[in-house]
């Protein structure tokens, strides 16, 4: 069964509210881009390009979107500015659909009855622990048996924070002392999960980027040790990015995708920023599925990413 199907339909009103700051910023910029114009011409397209780049969609993705709109203008011969918003939405959704990796339906539970293992990576401060806690809450609410593993042993605070979430959600946690071998924690977590018949295992990892080689070696070791317990583990490597950091999120994605094989993305803190366009750019540029977006502080505000609903919320008046 697809994990996305476990959570039910995300609340559209929550998504709309979470993207308010980005939406307000985008519409103000769009209004300035088309002021005094009756049709989409080169000047409007130049202005639109600036709007998208300044909304953290990213240069490469912006250019691809502009090229698609130019093709529409050329084909239709005339396009009024009142149509621009609709065409913009259609072309962004079409662009994201071309990347098959953005289809969340591939996020499936194993059919062999073994636990589904999610290894979570990301720098400190991006909302990694909160994302793990909210995921645990969602899985448990869907009737799944969840085990957490505190393999970020570099910081005592990381272990403490994850333990607070485990208590809050009422799921078991496997931990050791600060400075312990992260791979050992992962091994113990998977062993417990396998023994107890758990459905989902979520492993936290250290968020250090100061030495990419050390990070790569550590994550590789964790993955190799987990395979001794469950040969298919990890089933998912989830990179958590802070959407409010805009272009810095791109850089973090670059660094982590070089350090390990990232198979899914979660982009957090979109409710507190006008940089929500970063989701479009990252989704397009890295060809890695954006599985979750954080649009608020409540448990329910970690939502499954739906490209059509996201683009509709971002660009609908």
From TrEMBL:
Q: Which residue ranges does the record assign to the SRP54-type proteins GTP-binding domain?
A: 289-302
Tell me which EC number(s) this protein carries.
Answer: 3.6.5.4
Q: Name one GO biological process term.
A: SRP-dependent cotranslational protein targeting to membrane
Top-rank lineage group of the source organism: Bacteria
Q: Which reaction does it catalyse?
A: GTP + H2O = GDP + phosphate + H(+)
Topology with regard to the membrane? Answer: Peripheral membrane protein
Q: Where in the cell is it found?
A: Cell membrane; Cytoplasm
| Stored InterPro entries | AAA+_ATPase (IPR003593), P-loop_NTPase (IPR027417), Signal_recog_particl_SRP54_hlx (IPR013822), SR_rcpt_FtsY (IPR004390), SRP/SRP_N (IPR036225), SRP54_GTPase_dom (IPR000897), SRP54_N_sf (IPR042101)
GO cellular component terms listed in the entry, alphabetical order: cytoplasm; plasma membrane
- PROSITE patterns from the entry? SRP54 (PS00300)
Keywords of this protein's UniProt record, alphabetized?
A: Cell membrane, Cytoplasm, GTP-binding, Hydrolase, Membrane, Nucleotide-binding, Receptor
Q: Record-annotated residues binding GTP?
A: 122-129, 204-208, 268-271
One MF term in GO for this entry? GTP binding
Query: PANTHER family in the record, alphabetically?
Result: SIGNAL RECOGNITION PARTICLE RECEPTOR SUBUNIT ALPHA (PTHR43134:SF1)
Q: Which family does it belong to?
A: Belongs to the GTP-binding SRP family. FtsY subfamily.
Instruction: State how it assembles.
Output: Part of the signal recognition particle protein translocation system, which is composed of SRP and FtsY.
Q: What does this protein do?
A: Involved in targeting and insertion of nascent membrane proteins into the cytoplasmic membrane. Acts as a receptor for the complex formed by the signal recognition particle (SRP) and the ribosome-nascent chain (RNC).
Q: What is this protein called?
A: Signal recognition particle receptor FtsY
Gene it is expressed from: ftsY
């Amino acid at each position: 069964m697809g994990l996305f199907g476990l959570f039910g339909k995300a609340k559209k009103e929550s998504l709309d509210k979470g993207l308010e700051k980005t939406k307000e910023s985008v519409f103000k910029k769009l209004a300035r881009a088309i002021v005094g114009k009756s049709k989409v011409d080169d000047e409007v397209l130049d202005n639109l390009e600036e709007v998208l780049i300044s909304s953290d969609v990213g240069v490469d993705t912006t250019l691809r979107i502009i090229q698609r709109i130019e093709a529409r203008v050329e084909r239709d011969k005339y396009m009024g500015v009142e149509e621009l918003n609709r065409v913009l939405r259609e072309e962004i959704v079409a662009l994201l659909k071309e990347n098959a990796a953005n289809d969340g339906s591939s996020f499936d539970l194993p059919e062999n009855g073994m636990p589904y293992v999610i290894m979570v990576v990301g720098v400190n401060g991006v909302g990694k622990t909160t994302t793990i806690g909210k995921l645990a809450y969602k899985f448990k609410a869907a009737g799944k048996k969840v085990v957490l593993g505190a393999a970020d042993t570099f910081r005592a605070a990381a272990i403490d924070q994850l333990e607070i979430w485990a208590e809050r959600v009422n799921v078991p946690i496997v931990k050791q002392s600060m400075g312990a071998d992260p791979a050992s924690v992962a091994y113990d977590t998977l062993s417990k999960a396998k023994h107890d018949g758990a459905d989902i295992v979520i492993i936290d990892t250290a968020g250090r980027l100061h030495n990419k080689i050390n990070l790569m070696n550590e994550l590789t070791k964790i993955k190799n040790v987990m395979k001794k317990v469950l040969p298919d583990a990890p089933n998912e490597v989830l990179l958590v990015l802070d959407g409010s950091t805009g272009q810095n999120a791109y850089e973090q994605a670059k660094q982590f995708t070089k350090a390990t094989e990232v198979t899914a993305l979660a982009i957090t803190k979109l409710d507190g920023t006008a940089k929500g366009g970063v989701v479009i750019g990252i989704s397009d540029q890295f060809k890695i599925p954006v599985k979750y977006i954080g649009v608020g502080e409540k448990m329910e505000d970690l939502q499954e990413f739906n490209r059509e609903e996201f683009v509709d919320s971002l660009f609908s008046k």
